[in-house]
Amino acid sequence: xxxxxxxxxxxxxxxxxxxxxxxxxxxxxxxxxxxxxxxxxxxxxxxxxxxxxxxxxxxxxxxxxxxxxxxxxxxxxxxxxxxxxxxxxxxxxxxxxxxxxxxxxxxxxxxxxxxxxxxxxxxxxxxxxxxxxxxxxxxxxxxxxxxxxxxxxxxxxxxxxxxxxxxxxxxxxxxxxxxxxxxxxxxxxxxxxxxxxxxxxxxxxxxxxxxxxxxxxxxxxxxxxxxxxxxxxxxxxxxxxxx
Length: 243
Prior knowledge:
The chain is an alpha/beta fold. The chain has one domain (about 1-235, about 240): Rossmann fold (3-Layer(aba) Sandwich), CATH 3.40.50.1580. The chain has helices spanning about 10-20, 55-65, 105-110, 120-125, 130-140, 160-170, 180-190, 210-230, 235-240, and strands spanning about 1-10, 25-30, 30-40, 40-50, 70-80, 90-95, 115, 145-155, 175, 195-200. The chain has a 5-stranded mixed β-barrel, surrounded by 4 helices. A hairpin with a 3-residue loop joins strand 3 (about 30-40) and strand 4. Helix 1 runs parallel beside helix 8 (about 210-230) and helix 2 runs parallel beside helix 7 (about 180-190). It is globular.
């Protein structure tokens, strides 16, 4: 039995996750809505964490303390920093950069304490080929692409300009959001394996508000359909055998 905890920052991200993954057992944990489902080989829980690093860090700790998951998965929307990304593309993160603690140039001098890796880095080093196989599956069967890369995670609004360029060109991040670093670091401190799957809802420029409003719901449906395949169709089981 593999136990998976999914951290959903915003209400729409939680509700869409609950619906697509068919999580019917809804209750409350320390004031947060949680929903769960147990199948033959997967025990799954999702929590409505609340937006931002503080709420997602505390929600991740709640899930770890009360559910003891084998994996924590960070999910939700993200803005595209790479011009190669399209709306509805899914970014599977290798590393998250907590860039908002220092300015970008100072971050580059001391990156290790503010960079958190996912289980994907170990998986890629194993040369198992599982992620490439899953990427190919998404391209063949899904409505988007799965793209591997690094995420810039900080509580700043990225709306184009110098910040967007610096995150992309100086840090090498391909997408940005508020919460990923908090979820991954909390999991790491508890020695729990973590993944991050973030779907592109906007291009992190001056039109981000309109793009999020237009794309968020549809993009999340695509994200959770892919995540359902990842969790329930043997991919995570294969990964567990490698890790």
